[in-house]
Amino acid sequence: MSKVYAVGIGPGGEEFFTQEAKAALERADVIAGYTVYVDLVRDMFPGKEFFTTPMKQEIERCRWAIETACSGKTVAVVCSGDAGVYGMAGLMIELADQYDDVEIEVVAGVTAANSGAAVLGAPLGHDFCLISLSDLLTPWELIEKRLHCASEADFAICLYNPRSKKRADYLQKACNIMMEHKSPDTICGWVKNIGREGQEYNIVKLSELENEPVDMFTTVFIGSATTKVIAGRMVTPRGYEKHEDSYFRGNI
Amino acid sequence: MSKVYAVGIGPGGEEFFTQEAKAALERADVIAGYTVYVDLVRDMFPGKEFFTTPMKQEIERCRWAIETACSGKTVAVVCSGDAGVYGMAGLMIELADQYDDVEIEVVAGVTAANSGAAVLGAPLGHDFCLISLSDLLTPWELIEKRLHCASEADFAICLYNPRSKKRADYLQKACNIMMEHKSPDTICGWVKNIGREGQEYNIVKLSELENEPVDMFTTVFIGSATTKVIAGRMVTPRGYEKHEDSYFRGNI
Q: B51: how many CB neighbours lie within 10 A of its CB?
């Protein structure tokens, strides 16, 4: 049985790799992935063979990885963040089913929702939704429906792919939908280039979000009604503070 | 400025630690946390001082950590999964605001949604929601509202704290709500003791989920309408397969 690893490497730097991800890449003969992500790991794994494809060639990339594994090499496909969150893991399992004797092992990583949240504070400390604003593979109507329902139920919301050159007004459209249900004063935040050179972030109100310098390397966080700013950080409380009397058992 | 680290350690074993989490715990003089989680790391960090409190003493634990940091020690509070997802990060930021010159550094980790998903396949490969079924700190009515809206918008849903002895029927209640909007044939999965001794999982239909041996150490996954079982694994497709013609640029 040949094996291909679908490896989530977190936001970029080596410090965000799990030991499991590092071990999988060390075991691999070939590391494949989107050019930008392979470039993040190239220097960490000298002596490996690398195979890169640009964006929109995900199927080609995953087929190549599976066929290369079938020919006897150990292959790892790297994904930024987690391999299972808008990553290659699902596609690899689907494609592997068309071949004999190849198995996909998914190695989880820290997705941008969590690594970005750590930069801002704790914006996802209670129930939350992840929504991608990219309509390349998803009908825009379904994205709108999810924005409506997530806002109506007062979830904190984390947006992936919030804006690109071709989709310059999608974040604005999303903000307008969310403001049908959430207050324009809802606390929001964004983090650009999480854990990489040029990391930037800001905390603003929902009404201000559409004017922020958000791009496709940015992850956006919209709070729930309970989200607040504490000492310059964005926090969605779990609810402990309401229970301090019953929780607190005396000084130590 | 004193510093306290809020460290997500992933599901348990050392292989799931990020390098950043390991480094933070190595830098700490004292490692504090819920007894169960501290026991997971005790052997990895010999020579450290440990401070544990049982469940429901989160405020006490975090205050102790902050006050100990103010007295000059480096303190790390460990959380399973990610420190910001139903973890201690938010509470620590709130409490630290009551003290002078103490800062909370959040170190992200792999939350059970992602580590459990890797065991099952790729159940969270498209938009999803995280909902905790614990009503200890959240009104049950809000949990119900979120289950309704998440199901109505056909999100994949990941449930934390799906069942406990005191809340034996909560998963059943949640399944009934979800089946008002989702087909009873919707693909679901669960993983118990993720990455720890005794890891177990199963893939079933939504109508069968309430009868599965789900407990408080289990993470539950409910698919979207597109979720399927492929070679015994649970996959929520991103949507690439619909675009094979336009994506696939020829054989290599």
A: 16
Amino acid identity, position A136: L
pLDDT (mean) for A206-210: 98
- Region B165-178: mean pLDDT is 95
Q: Is B64 on the interface with A (CB under 8 A)?
A: yes
CA dihedral defined by A104, A105, A110, A112, rounded to 10 degrees? Answer: 0
Would you say B119 and B191 are in contact if contact means Cβ atoms under 8 Å apart? yes
Burial (0-12, 13-18, 19+ Cβ within 10 Å), B245? exposed
Chain A contact present for B223, CB below 8 A: no
Asked if the Cβ–Cβ distance from A108 to B122 is below 8 Å, we say: no
Q: Are the Cβ atoms of A93 and B60 closer than 8 angstroms?
A: no
Query: Could you tell me if B227 and B114 are in contact, meaning their C-beta atoms sit under 8 angstroms apart?
Result: no
CB B123 within 8 A of CB B221: yes
Tell me the pLDDT tens digit for each residue of A37-71.
899 899 999 999 999 988 778 899 999 999 999 99
This prediction's pTM: 0.95
Distance CA(B252)–CA(B249), nearest Å, equals: 9
Number of helical (H) and strand (E) elements in chain A, helices listed first: 9, 13
Segment B6-35 shows an average pLDDT of: 95
Rounded CA-CA distance B115/B194 in Å is 7
Q: How far off is chain B from A59, nearest CA to CA, in Å?
A: 6
Q: What's the pLDDT at A241?
A: 67
Given a cut of 90, whether residue A246 has pLDDT beyond it is no
A207 to chain B, closest Cα gap in Å: 23
Nearest alpha carbon to residue A152 among A180, A184, A172, A113:
A180
pLDDT band of B12, cuts 50, 70, 90? confident
CB distance from B152 to chain A under 8 Å? Answer: yes
Segment among B50-54, B76-80, B183-187 with least mean pLDDT: B50-54
Residue A228 identity? K
Assess B126–A contact: CB distance below 8 Å, yes or no.
yes
Distance from CA of A23 to the nearest CA of B (A): 9
Distance from CA of A47 to the nearest CA of B (A): 22
Q: List Cα–Cα distances, A212 to A175, A188, A208, B5, in angstroms.
A: 12, 11, 7, 30
Q: Which residues of A touch B71 (CB under 8 A)?
A: none
> Please, which pLDDT band fits residue A227 given cuts at 50, 70 and 90?
very high
Provide the sign of the torsion angle of the four alpha carbons B111, B114, B119, B123, taken in this order.
Answer: positive
Is residue A89 within 8 A of residue B121, CB to CB? The reply is yes
